[in-house]
Write a structure and sequence with these properties.
- With 145 residues, the chain is an alpha/beta fold.
- The protein has a single domain (2-143), classed as Ribose 5-phosphate Isomerase B, Chain: A (3-Layer(aba) Sandwich), CATH 3.40.1400.
- Helix content is 49%, strand content 17%.
- It is built from six helices and five strands.
- It has helices at 12-24, 42-55, 69-76, 89-99, 113-125, 132-143; strands spanning 2-7, 28-31, 60-65, 83-85, 103-107.
- The protein has a five-stranded parallel sheet, with helices on both faces.
- Helix 1 (12-24) crosses helix 5 (113-125), helix 2 crosses helix 3 (69-76) and helix 4 (89-99) packs parallel to helix 5 (113-125).
């Protein structure tokens, strides 16, 4: 699977841990985030990953900033993106099952590396249920215009 990963300066170390974790599982990881702790603007990175996922250049995305909130808000401005901030695996699972999320986000200042791996793994292993949830996903998509 082709995965876009983006991060700001607060999440460089965790980004590399998650990137290595995903590559060890055989995924192609497109690194579009910061590689140093020099301050960067997370909205541009969130938008970039969002556009890659929305266009199909990447199948899914992973975003990491201090909390996961700001960078996910930026990604969610891109039509076709459903980015969810998750601090534990249960929310990640339901974001895929019920909301068909295509980007997962979390905070490097909120979760440790092992929890981040569990969040990503759970999310990627979960299938969208469709059915009764599709009407709501369609309503979300309609908000975008």
């Amino acid at each position: 699977m082709k995965i876009a990963i983006g991060n700001d300066h607060a999440a460089v170390e965790l980004k590399f841990i998650i990137k290595e974790h995903l590559e060890a599982k055989g995924h192609e990881v497109l690194n579009v985030g910061a590689n140093t702790t020099e301050s960067v603007d997370y909205p541009a990175i969130g938008e970039n990953v969002g556009r890659m996922v929305a266009s199909g250049e990447a199948e899914i995305g992973v975003l990491i900033c201090g909390t996961g909130v700001g960078i996910s808000i930026a990604a969610n401005k891109v039509k076709g993106v459903r980015a969810c901030v998750c601090s534990e695996p249960y929310t990640a699972k339901l974001s895929k099952m019920h909301n068909n999320s295509n980007i997962i986000a979390f905070g490097a200042r909120v979760v440790g590396s092992e929890m981040a791996k569990m969040i990503v793994d759970t999310w990627m292993e979960t299938e969208y249920e469709g059915g009764r949830h599709q009407r709501r996903v369609d309503l979300l998509d309609a908000i975008e215009g």
